[in-house]
Design brief:
It contains eleven helices and 14 strands. With 341 residues, it is of the alpha/beta class. It has a single domain, classed as 3-Layer(aba) Sandwich (Rossmann fold). Strands 6-7-8-3-9-10-14-13 form an eight-stranded mixed sheet, with helices on both faces. A four-stranded antiparallel sheet has the order 2-1-4-5. A two-stranded antiparallel ribbon has the order 11-12. It binds adenosine-5'-diphosphate (ADP) and magnesium ion (MG). Adenosine-5'-diphosphate binds next to strand 1, strand 2 and helix 2.
């Protein structure tokens, strides 16, 4: 067996997810490619509305259809079944079918910004984690409870044998977040998808959650797709970074490479918009303009109306490809592309 292939966990190619609305077609995800290997973290960054959540909801097959539709592309999930490598094409599965239900929770765990979307307020967190384990594993309730307690302990929840019987509202935001991570990992998934998991918590809790995720990642050799619009967070957790703008990856590369040599004018603008502490003054340069609606994507390079370097007659006409400029650093900008004018 090819070792390189067994390290692979997920491979997304030319993925397109559109929403067909009365006002027009929203091209929320429009030709996205990436892959994630075991033990690695892909950070996806970009402003609100750029298609980050739709990308991962498509992987989980949680896109409501209609109006949503996977229009093109593939999502290959690499999994081990009886120690044999098996590749599942997720786009071909029935979103409500048994196979997809097995993948959700068992192969892929997911944590969200708001733990209350993962937990029902009506049941104890223990009931819900145990239920998740019993859905996927052939073990009895007592073993499932033991495993739930063990995971609550692993995520740093104090007195897990008691906390397991509390209701979500009885926990602090940070503890709920930890409980959600425990639930997402309780069936030993190979892939964890985290969609802005630290956006709603304060900076101290955020740092604790990031440390915890990194620790669990190492223990479990988890592949992680981590979505955030917080660059400090992505700089801590990511190996690779994909910068998304209006449904497309506009820059991709190793974290160090992206932070030391950002190439796309959008990435440069994003980095400039982080508050920098200079003496006692915080400097914040907002990116010019707003993200346009995804149903009215500008012609040519979709970033050109906001781009300082846009060249009239070229950038508003020609749509750039994602070009590899070396070392796997890719950028979708005509400045880096040989254009025949
Ligand atoms: N159910 C939906 N129906 C119509 N449009 C949607 C739906 N979900 C998301 N979109 C649109 O898809 C685009 C990408 O959204 P999203 O992936 O949530 O952005 P992000 O997570 O990067 O903030 C946005 O323009 C959003 O309005
Ligand atoms: Mg989102």
């Amino acid at each position: 067996m090819n070792l390189e292939l067994t390290e692979r966990v997920i491979e997304v190619s030319n993925l397109k997810t559109y929403f067909y609305l009365d006002i027009g077609i929203v091209k929320a995800v429009d030709g996205v490619d990436f892959s994630v290997d075991r033990g690695k973290t892909l950070g996806i960054i970009g402003e609100s509305g750029c298609g980050k959540s739709v990308t991962v909801h498509t992987i989980m097959r949680l896109i409501q259809s209609p109006p949503g539709k996977i229009v093109d592309g593939s999502i290959k999930l690499y999994r081990l079944k009886n120690n044999e490598l098996e590749i599942v094409e997720i786009t071909k599965l029935d979103p409500k079918g048994k196979e997809m239900r097995d993948i959700r929770g068992k192969e892929i765990g997911m944590v969200f910004q708001e733990p209350m979307t993962a937990f029902s307020p009506m049941y104890t967190i223990g009931d819900q984690i145990i239920e998740a384990i019993l859905t996927h594993e052939n073990i009895d309730k007592k073993e499932a409870r033991e495993r739930a307690i063990e995971f609550l302990r692993r995520v740093g929840i104090p007195r897990p044998e008691r906390t397991i019987d509390t209701y979500p509202f009885q926990l602090s935001g940070g503890m709920r977040q930890r409980a959600m991570i425990a639930m997402a990992l309780s069936c030993y998934p190979r892939l964890l998808i985290a969609d802005e998991p630290t956006t709603a918590v304060d900076v101290t809790v955020q740092a604790q959650i990031l440390d915890l995720l990194q620790e669990l990642q190492e223990d479990m050799k988890l592949a992680i797709i981590f979505i955030t619009h917080n660059l400090a967070v992505v700089s801590e957790i990511a190996d690779d970074i994909a910068v998304m703008y209006l449904g497309k990856i506009v820059e991709f590369g190793k974290k160090e490479e992206i932070f030391s040599h950002p190439l796309h004018p959008y990435t440069v603008a994003l980095f400039r918009s982080i508050p920098k502490v200079e003496g006692k003054l915080e400097r914040l340069v907002p990116i010019y303009g707003n993200v346009p609606s995804s149903y009215q994507i500008p012609e040519g390079c979709s970033f050109h109306p906001r781009c300082e370097n846009a060249i009239r007659g070229i950038c508003n006409v020609t749509s750039p490809d994602l070009i590899d400029v070396g070392n796997g650093h890719k950028v979708r900008c005509l400045i880096y592309q040989k254009v025949e004018v």
